[in-house]
Amino acid sequence: MIRFAPGRISWHAIESFPVLLMFRLLYERVFVYDWVMVSAAVRRLRDAIDGLAADEIAGSQGADVAALWRELSRLDAQLARRLVEFDRSMEWSVEGARSCAGWLAAHVRCATGEAQHRVKVARQVAAMPVARAAWEAGAVGTRHVDALTTVRKAADADGEFAVFEPVLVDVAEQGRPEDVTNVGKQWRDALDSHLDRDGRRIREHELRGARFSRTLDGAGFLEARFDTEGAEIIATGLDRSYERAHQTGDPRSPAQQRSDAIVEIFQHYLDGQPRGSNRPHVIAVGDAATYSGEAVGLCETLRGHRLHPETMRRWSCDSFLQRALVDADGVVLDLGRATRSFTPDQYRAMVVRDGGCRWPSCDAGPDQCEGHHLDHAATGGPTDLDNGILACRGPGGHHRNLHEGGSTVTGDPNGELTFRDPDGNLIGTSRPRRPPKRIPTRTGNDLERVRQRVEALKRAA
Fold first, then answer.
1. What are the phi and psi torsion angles at 213 (to 5°)?
2. Are 245 and 257 in contact (CB under 8 A)?
3. Residue 429 bridge partners (DSSP)
4. How far apart are CA 259 and CA 250, in angstroms?
5. Which residues pair with 214 in a beta bridge?
6. Closest of 280, 429, 422, 293 to residue 359, by C-alpha
7. N or C: which end of the chain has fewer CB within 10 A?
8. With a threshold of 0.85, does the pTM exceed it?
9. How many CB atoms lie within 10 A of CB 301?
10. pLDDT tens digits, residue range 243-289?
């Protein structure tokens, strides 16, 4: 990274490169020009922050953290005051900016979305005197104000909101931003009923929508908006799927776990489709040489997105398979009968034997697992109990580790299995589930006493 500090780099040298010259101009505008033009009050604020930075942090910091948080909110309020005046003056247009938010994003290098949000809040709070006074005094925080402005905008009834504003600000002073949002929704529902309108609910419902797009390399992007009812259903299902797959010390980030949870939800939906239709979840198209690992050729989804051959082999561990012989041009020469890699009876037998995922220390239950071939069917391995184990599925599951992840497993499924990482290092071992030790019931104890009496009678005779 180049640091544009005077004395460390030659401005003359920079001017010989157009791109670097642009950075020089930006530097002078943001860092040099700013020092000259700011007010005396802002300079004093800078001096105070410099003093904070110079302080040695020692002892209890709770009081300082709380005080700084309050002053940070007050500082946000002062920024909003100046921002709304700057927006109204259209001073931002002098330099060719198309909007106040555009000028802000360019000059302070914040995200465009943040710049737009700041300007919108500043405009809203300028018409909310009670909220503005509480914000400037530090009685409410910036997130409280965000919630207040959201309620005002959603209500679309400025006169009615002005009457209710003191009540809502009091809620903000006593509670959290979520409390403001909930009370605001309750007030809007009452307002809609009073005005005999369903506008808010209808608008919220009509704004719902979802977009799913794919990149050239097959990655997917999901963007969606739901009404309150739909969002609650989505949030509940996502939380349950997340908690179900979460593991202690999970190496996946929360965002990755949520992504995997969404895939798992769709997987369960597809698994629950009526039987008998023979309609597969996903279709993979590949040639025999690629499937067996002898070559790398055709291997893609029916939608035309390229798959890694190991992904296709993982899918074939526990799925409906249909042989399709193609020639060099991709023309289908022969289409065989669809078969299941592991039968339902074989799967149930593995559930009884394994109890769940056989990966060492994995606690995934059988409903989260699928069958895995130790000696893969692509290389001639049989599909039977002596060649199959349960491995948890999903983007973060251990079945993926045994294919795309490069981990290996060897041994006897009915005895001890040894798992190693791609470098050959030992991960651990696992054995089939042991039945619990039998504890005799009252009936069992009575039978034992009867047996003992019979034996005693035999000895006496």
1. -130, 160
2. yes
3. 418
4. 14
5. 220
6. 429
7. N
8. no
9. 15
10. 877 777 778 888 888 888 888 888 777 766 655 444 555 666 777 77
